[in-house]
Amino acid sequence: MAAYVLPTAAQAHLDVVGSDEKFPVRRVYCIGKNYVAHIREMNADERDPPVIFMKPADAVVRNGGEIPYPVFTENFHYECELVVVLKSGGYNISVADAASHIYGYAVGLDMTRRDHQKGVLEKGLPWEVTKAFDLSAPIGPVTRAEECGVLTSGQLTLKVNGEVKQDADIGLMIWKVDEIIAKLSEQHRLQPGDIIMTGTPAGVGAVVTGDVLDCTMEGLEPMQVRIGPKAV
């Protein structure tokens, strides 16, 4: 066994509903611009294809709980999303075969430093500063596909302090889950442990310390996140 000069990081993982086993997270792929109404509220071009970006695996926050208000932002936004987790992968997966690679689904939040997003988009800079920061991917427990079936519709809802802010059927996604998997596999060799955040509907907005976010999706386990004091 190799000896490392520093302690190794813990394996990022997600809980699995009805099991003591854990789902190990390898990569976190994210899809932007995947609901027309959200594209319009961001004043983006709805003719553009969805954007593909990543978050680091250690950005995952298992089952929500409390996350700090992050440093380097004064405009911290939620984006509630359906999360797809993969049990297998490869290059150039066909749309018809995509569902066979799905282990299960969860609800998640793509937390965003919105005040930095406009600048990086205008300058054509990478998205990491706005998307890939610490604890920016709270994700709920995984429901296995064998339990919930292949999800092509169902209501995705986010409440802030009990008030509905996002509410849309995943059937409204521009790129469907099977198409997302196929497109990602053109550019990346998908592997077991990869997860995909599939994009957010309209209704994104800012949160502050003390706010409570409730994320739900028909057929999946809910997730609650509380925004804590500013990180130091």
Automatic annotation (TrEMBL):
Any Pfam family matching the protein: FAA_hydrolase
First-level EC class: hydrolase
Top-level taxon: Bacteria
EC numbers on record: 3.7.1.5
Gene Ontology molecular function: any one: metal ion binding
Domain (Fumarylacetoacetase-like C-terminal): residue spans on this chain: 28-226
SUPFAM superfamilies for this protein: FAH
Keywords: Hydrolase, Metal-binding
Record keyword Metal-binding present: yes
PANTHER family attached to this UniProt entry: ACYLPYRUVASE, FLUTATHIONE S-TRANSFERASE
Annotated protein name in UniProt: FAA-hydrolase-family protein
UniProt organism field: Cereibacter sphaeroides (strain ATCC 17023 / DSM 158 / JCM 6121 / CCUG 31486 / LMG 2827 / NBRC 12203 / NCIMB 8253 / ATH 2.4.1.) (Rhodobacter sphaeroides)
